[in-house]
Amino acid sequence: MSGLGWMVLALALLVGVVVAGEWLLARRKGSVRHVMAERIVLLTMAGGFLGAPFWWRGDPDAFAWMLPPLAGRMLAAASWAFAVACLLALLRPGAAQFRLIGVMLASYLGPLTFAILLLHLDRFDPARSVTWSFFATVMLLLPGAAWLILAFPRSPAELTSPMPAQWMPALFGSVAGLWGTVLFIWPAGPVASLWLWPGDALTSRLIASMFLTIAAASWAARGSSRLLVTVMASVFVYGVGVCLAGSANLAAGKPLPVAYLAFWALGGASAAIFLLMSVLSRRTGKTRL
After folding, report:
1. pLDDT by residue (tens digit) across 208-241?
2. Element of type H or E holding 48
3. Which of 94, 237, 248, 268 has its CA 20 to 30 A from that of 85?
4. Which residues of 56-86 are buried (b: 16+ CB within 10 A; e: fewer)?
């Protein structure tokens, strides 16, 4: 299928999902601010769920620049992780959840867009339809992310009673942030297992953006058990996705990205434990009541 064909198909699917979501959200009552926030989150969720399969398949006209197969699958995993976070925000709407989505979007798109404009514009072909759709999406979501952060400032009322293992998101987020920062600033380092795309700085920075997003989200969710559940659900989805992406490399006869697999497998396992402890903690609390 041509690039224009992919764009038309993706747009049609996006419109269909957004219309369905709009029909569901229209039943809710809320302020104009909450209505706007829900629509931004809905658009992000729809784009995440719908874009991921194309990027996982590695369709050449599905993304704004050519991605190596592993990077394309990791992008798809990040997309699904975002979609799950947005779904949880829509299922349990509130100022804190909306702001968290804003933080995640800003952390993912902000540094990447700055790097693209400063260093990587030569990687984009204006003759490709997907190039324009990429920049149009960024121009919509970045201001939307900024608005979510500014319109829903953090409140002390969001702090909840301590839940078990709150140190897990903080620790994992800190390590992810350190790795992501180094990879973003220095995309062609000397250790092959850590710098998988030393000749493709833009792709390295794309992958680093998800590391930075998890770090920023972990910090933004501190002190709130509900927000930490959203963050760790995203970590779980991304961890599973990275492990599947690495396994696909093995199936194709390519080297396993061992360091990435180990780190995100640990993250996914930690997230699963955290989420299970959260469920058990809530059930115990209800029993005591």
Report:
1. 999 999 999 999 998 888 899 999 999 999 999 9
2. helix 32-57
3. 248
4. bebeebbbbbebeebbbbbbbbbbbbbbbbb
